[in-house]
Model the fold of this input.
Amino acid sequence: MESLYVVVHPHCVYLQATCDSAPPTRRAAANLVLEEITNIFDHEDFVVLRAGSDPSEVPYAIPDGKEVRVCGAFRDICVASQLRALLANGVDAKLYEPATLD
Done:
């Protein structure tokens, strides 16, 4: 089954990866997540929730026959909110951990 990736606030992952004042372990974790998100952008079907988007809403259509994987910035807040919104709308969505930043 093909996947559709919902990437929540990828710019925040980039900012964490490039922030000189962030602890080295945080930058390293963000860089790993950013690499995976870049891979998604290069090779997969995806939609992006950008700055100003409400992660508790689903502002896009989900194509039939797609497995939905949610990832991006702020796992316990924004990513979790988008995941709950998708599930509430009857979408079988799952967290995609390799491309998710705490």
